[in-house]
Each structure stands twice: as C-alpha cells, then as structure tokens.
Amino acid sequence: TNDRPLILVSGKLISHVLTRLADRFDIKEIARPDAELLQPDDRERVRGIAASFLGVPASLIDALPNLEIIASYGVGYDAVDAGHAAEKTVVVTNTPDVLTDEVADTAIALLLNTLRDFNRAERYLRDGSWPDGPFPLSKGTLRNRRVGIFGMGRIGLAIARRLEGFGVAIAYHNRRPVDGVPYTYHATLGDLAAACDTLINVAPATAQTTRAVDAAILQALGEDGVFINVGRGATVDEEALIEALQARTILAAGLDVFANEPHVPQALLDADNAVLLPHVASASQHTRKAMADLLVDNLESWFDRGEALTPVPETAAISRKA
Ligand code: NDP
To answer: From atom 33 of ligand 1, which residue's Cα is the shortest distance away?
Structure first.
C-alpha cells in the first residue's frame, strides 16, 4: 500500500510548491477548485489541499471525505470557506509574516506613485515628450499628509513603521486598539476617515468589512483625499470609488486589488487619477518562494507531527493528534 498522502493542488501555484510536495506526497493537480474535475477514487484519497488564490469553496470540502488540511497560499484566506472547514474538522493554514515587509513596501510605492504620478511621468519620457517641456507638477504630495490605516495588523504596522520615516501623521482603525503603538486610534472607520486625508486599506475581507469603504468614507477624506488599497477589493464600494474619482471629490486612488479580479472596470482604466496594479503586493520571487515554503511546511508538519504551523483562528483548535 501507498502511505504517501494525496495532496490536491488546486489552481496554479509556483513550481517550488510542486517540487517540494513531490518529495513527500502524491500530487493531483486541478485547474480550478471544482470537485467535478476529480475522479471518485481521487476524491476518496485526497487528504490535503494546496490552495491557490482561487480558494476552496464548501462544495469541494464536502466532496472530499478524507480531507484533513487546506494549506492556502497567501495571508488573506477570504476565498477559503474556513467556517465550513472548521465544522468539518478540517484545518486551514495561511502564510502570515513571510510577506509582511514585501506588502508594506508595495503600499509605500503605490502611495508615492499615486501622489506624485511617477508612472505617467515615465511614460512622458518614453513617449519622447520631455524635449517639449517638463512634465506637469504633481497635484499630490506626501508632505503634510494625515495617513489613516484601516487594519493595524501585521502589515498595517509594517506600513506605519515605514511611514514614520516620512514624517507624516499616522492614525488607525481596528475593532480594538493595539497595545504599545504610538499611533492615534479611532473606534470607527468613519472617525478615522474624518481625521485623515489619506486612507490605506489593509484590513481582511470579511462579512464585517464588505464595502466598508463607501461613498461617505471617501467623501470624508476630502477633495485632497487619497485612497490606497492593498487589502481586498471586496472591502470597497467600487462604484462609489469610481464616482468619487470621476467627480474629483477625492484626489486619487492607488489600487492593487479589485472587486472582480482579474477584471478591472473600464471606468478605472479610463481614470487619470488612479494608479492600478494587478494584485502584485507580495509578488517578488523572494517572497512568493517564502510563502510556498510555509505552505508546504504546514502540510509536512501536519502529516509528520499532527500539528499545523500557522492555522487560521477559525481552525486553531483542531489538531491531528486529538
Ligand atoms: P492581520 O490579521 O495581522 O491584520 C488585520 C487587521 O485588521 C487586524 O489588526 C484587525 O484588528 C483588523 N480588522 C479585522 N477585522 C476588522 C474589522 N471588522 N474592522 C476593523 N478592523 C478589522 O493580517 P495581515 O496584516 O497579515 O493581512 C491583512 C490583509 O491584507 C489580509 O487579510 C489580506 O486580505 C491583505 N493582503 C493583501 C495582499 C495583496 O497582495 N494585495 C498581500 C497580503 C495581504 P482587530 O481584530 O482588532 O479588528
């Protein structure tokens, strides 16, 4: 008999995941997290899932009677039905910490690009326009800004630490204040938006945060307002954001994430006051390899020692030994 657990690799993951998994596990790859893509005997054999950003729906969990663990690639696991996994005593793991600095670096780059229009300035140079005259002065600047961070967690804190070096005022909103940080806490997102002109979203996508950044929040930032999103598109009312950009009730937005990825509304593509990135905040070879290692380390630890390394809170109580 074969005692190598069968791991379902669902969606596209970097080759490092497959290379490492092959040392210890049998592998079955499917393009999408859809049980229809699996033969009945494979469904029976699957004990773990290595899950891409496409996540894992309840229907796939239900189709795999011997599933023990879902190791998800990325720290945000909103695409995995962790509540359903917990009910089925399936542990879910994510990849916290190893991507924190990369995502914080991206947030700062996106903020500066949005304020200073560097992407368009480079296009101006490459277009051959420079000899005709200097690139127009940017409307935006980081000088004198009051920055609000929605989601002062691992990444939010790393963004705040970087911003300290820029000499801007820093405030935040979480459900609870964080002990030992010097930044101003606001108990509601509305209070934070009223107190700042630059809002950075890095909160997780949950039922509570869905469309939390709405027309009123954007309005509160003011006409010099800037919205940066490195969290999730679901946290923003994208139509309200488009309206605010078009009506120029805010100055600009910098977005790494969208409501319906990889599809980006034409109105955002057309907006000259938006900087748009294709969900690349953690996407360096260095950091994606570290995420891949932590994903595989979770599976190995589970099957070798009966404990996951980085289970998500919903499934933290589940252990294989129990
Ligand atoms: P953490 O869990 O460390 O931080 C999340 C923070 O959000 C916590 O401080 C939490 O505080 C706060 N929060 C959660 N729910 C709410 C709520 N309902 N209202 C207000 N605040 C809330 O996560 P990370 O910092 O590691 O990651 C944050 C998110 O960033 C991920 O979930 C992911 O979606 C996104 N991300 C995006 C990437 C990209 O490629 N663009 C890359 C990596 C992450 P409290 O519990 O007190 O409310």
So the answer is: 76
